[in-house]
Amino acid sequence: MEYFLTEEQQMIKELAARIAEERVKPVAAELDEKEEFPWEIMSILAEADLFRVWVPEEYGGLGGGVFEQALVVEELSKACSGVAVSYAASGLGAFPILLYGSEEQKNRYMPDIASGKRLAAFALTEADAGSDVSAIATTAVKDGDDYVLNGTKQWITNAGDAEIYVVIAVTDKSKGARGSSAFIVEKGTPGLSFGKKEKKLGIRASSTREVILENCRIPKENLLGREGLGFVVAMKTFDKTRPGIGAQAVGIAQGALDVAVNYARERVQFDQPISSFQGVQFMLADMATQTEAARALVYSAAKMADSGVGNISKAAAMAKLFASDVCMKVTVDAVQVLGGYGYMREYPVEKMMRDAKITQIYEGTNQIQRSIIALELVREAARKSRK
């Protein structure tokens, strides 16, 4: 489909696609097998200024937004989703600073994030607090001109490798979800440490670790916004980043579809390519249609997030939900098209299928996305009835 990208957007897409094809794809299987963080590729992306595409110009960026970031994430995900999420997670960690940081905080942290010199991470999830943000146990206690943080965050992408962390912690337990606040914590701060790198089903190149805070003392100037804004910071951040998960899902699906189509053209059975069999044709047609529909929804949600117009929470949830469900189905079907070969590690679709699953889980499970969508529908109906 034609999405009428601007000249600059087309250049960003083509540059990301070239890096994905030439630098990421050749090492994707090795990175997955060794579970190595892709530092060399992060450096390549930084040199290509791709960390700058979604950062405002006044903080060292190129002035793009969620849509431009989605273009990069999609292209990288076609080659390796582990690489793509390592890139995208820095945006997840930085958007809270862009949205709620003071000018001093933005000027201090964003130029290094935009240059790729320092990666960021977002520390929200805990062992007993995933979708239920009100169950967060990590605390931040005011002590003079400082806050002292204690608690453990779980399954944090880029943990240990990132240098800038936005941590959600409770400052007033009596207020439930509205009693949490957001803080910036830098790597190297005494009391900040990390757990072992988790062994995962997919996206193995990316780092997933615990973020451990033990009497971690930070200056009060590291508070984002004001006390009590933690829940809002998290939800508004997800409005900006969930389209990126959708883009990741679209990229994985497109990569799997491309492999399946090429295999179907080359694989001969009964003296003809299997692409001539109607059963395979219908599978490929459905895979292509579903992927394109997901792309259209993701692009629309990303542009809404940049414009600030419309029900962004609903659109972002829909994009993440639909694209990730499509991604899971398309990758499973790609393995089926390849048959026995699809199940083998020599072919990339088994990795794509493993990578696909997490898109239905992180940044809010798809069941949570459905709850968000339904809630927003009810709210919209209520507003209309009052007019």
The tally of beta strands, per DSSP, is 10
Number of domains: 3
Q: Under the CATH scheme, which architecture of the largest domain would be assigned? A: Up-down Bundle
Number of helices: 11
Q: Which fold does the CATH topology of the largest domain refer to?
A: Butyryl-CoA Dehydrogenase, subunit A, domain 3
List descriptors:
4-stranded mixed sheet, Butyryl-Coa Dehydrogenase, subunit A, domain 1, 387 residues, alpha+beta, Butyryl-CoA Dehydrogenase, subunit A, domain 2, Butyryl-CoA Dehydrogenase, subunit A, domain 3, 10 strands, single chain, globular
How does this structure look, described?
- With 387 residues, the chain is α+β, with helices and mostly antiparallel strands.
- Helix content is 53%, strand content 14%.
- It contains 11 helices and 10 strands.
- Strands 1-4-5-8 form a 4-stranded mixed sheet.
- β9 (268-269) and β10 form a beta hairpin.
- α4 (66-79) packs across α7 (230-266), α7 runs parallel beside α9 (312-338) and α7 runs antiparallel to α10.
- The mean pLDDT is 97.
